[in-house]
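Workshop exercise sheet. Pairs work together: one partner reads the sequence aloud, the other fills in the structure field after running the prediction. Swap roles for the next sheet.
Pair: D.N. / O.F.
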Amino acid sequence: MAVTDMDFTASAVDASSGGETVMLRWTMTNTTRASDGMSVRVYLHCQGATVGTCLGVLLVGTYDGGSYGQDITVVPGSTLQEAACEWALGVPQYAAGALVTWAVTCLEAWDTRGTSLDWGAARLGVFHSTFEVKTLADRQGPAYDDLVVDSERQPYIYVGEDSSRMTYDLDVRDSQVGVSGGAVTVSGSGGRHLTGSSRASASPSTSRAPLRVSAATTCT
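Structure field:
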């Protein structure tokens, strides 16, 4: 399998008023003749100030042959040996700054015969795999509520020779840039501290996202 071309319908858009979309188009080839279906995942990140770094949430487009209501569309007339794909994606209105660049950082695909590809930003960079966006700079931080111990557990654990684990659940929300991750630190006796972290992939359009953090420790 291979990607032979990729392009955005625009190299720059103004999303500061909201409701903006761009079309990502690409073509994939597959020499496996006996295949009768495929799946695709496309990942976009907002680029950081340093080359190779990313900011904020991850946008993910999906396609699974035979399913409905998907992000990615295979253009009519395509074949499994040469498929033209489209993804009309909503451009986030908010970002870390007033002018940012979104980039396709990964494209994964596989068929029913086990043939697959996994291309990162370096290989996809030979195509038009980025676009600039004028946005509104994020002015508010995330907030949370409902910080509780996992409802399926008692609010205590027994620690013997092996490590034990306690899970805390909380609802995190950010209606502007979205929630990309976080950490919880708990303090215990003897000045001990435990920190558990988690990374989410909620879209900026999702105002609330669950964040599950687990921390493990061994006590003697």
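Discussion prompt: The radius of gyration is 21 Å. What would you look at next?
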